[in-house]
Amino acid sequence: MKRLLVYTVMLVLLLFVGQGCNKELELSPADKLPTDEALSNIKGVNAAVNGMYAGMRAVNYYGRNYLILGEVTADNVYISTSNGNRFLSSWKLSWVVSDGDVSGVWNTAYSVILRANNIINSVPVISDGTAEEKDLAKGQALFVRALAHFDLLRFFAEPYIVGGGTSLGVPVITKFEVGSPARSTVDQVYAQIIADLTEAKSLLDENTSDPFNASSYAASALLARVYLYKGDNAAAIAEATRVINAGYTIQPANSLAEFYNTPGAGEDIFTLKILDIQTAGSDNLGQMYRKPGYGDIRVSPDLVNSLEPGDARRVFISAFTGSASEFQNNKFTGQQGISGLHSPKILRISEMYLARAEAYAKSGNYVAALADVNAIRTHRNLAALENVADNAVLTAVLKEKRVEFMFEGQRYFDLLRNKLDIVRNCTTPGQVNPGRCTVEATSNTAIFPIPQRETDVNRNIEQNPGYKK
Hints:
Keywords: Cell outer membrane, Membrane, Signal. The protein has 469 residues and is mainly alpha-helical.
């Protein structure tokens, strides 16, 4: 059983070695391993908070891959036949248990959870620090622990709507210890996520001016997303409304072009800031979509055709450089003069309007749902929707969300959690054959397998159906 502990410790060490160019980490050794000495005072805890956010910036997580995997598994983009062998198994939804995309998400998210746990469990016993300082550190760690568990659940477990919460989720880890944890049920994982976010909401400030650190409103925004995925529409509406009433502003159409290259805009609720010194160079997010980067990922013509005439979001799509018959994603062109560098806007106010709209539609309040959709449309140079049949309102909401959040890693999850099949256009010229033109939302292999290394060292963990252990 000690092999799991050894592997986890080695994983964390390797992740930090891999980010050796990160000056913030070099100055913060307290966040490298869970030691009593490092986290015995508020200075060490605050350094660990920095290290926790740094872990989220890893290429296998929000630094790139997590945002891409939520797109290449769905229908907004495709992998070009001119590619560098990246994300092919995820594009084809043909993972094996040793897949690098799969293990990268699992390992990195759990290393972030480890860092969050070190903070949560150290704050009550540190020797100094004010109550406000302790609340801030613990609240941020609870928020990140919830987010990482939720992100794991989205890829490695059946959506709540499929199994009703009774199917296997992921291991819930709340402390550093030797052992071989089994998978909790989906319902149990949701319970832990909601408990963490509820506590975080009570500990953190109601701050709308600093989106680079988790706030009480960020906790509410994530709760709104979580409740929507769980199917608790009333709770989703309540949390989204709290955030909407806080004063965040929807990004106007005339400034959309640079919105994604500008961290900390008025729409941002929680943004993971990435500085120029933290660039991944050729591995930056935008480089995967554009030339002169790798440009492996092209925009689906079906998505392009779904954009209405005059939609301000058309600025994010253009003819692909060097291939005029294809389309490229221009959301992540770069920031601070670094090509393809992007600070992920993990939570923003437009999502709250569309999350509330979806929850309203599913609750039968179609007038309110359309009002929230139209709040977005009027900021995108589009006419308000009127005279929409009740049975078509939810479809209108999901279409709006597809366009608003294209390339931001949400499409795959939005389809599966609504029990909607993934349908690719297999006739698109220039794409790698996806193999599966339609993937049923209830298919066992529509979700990631548990990584082989995990099942090798942990005899208590069960593999997902459809994959060999």
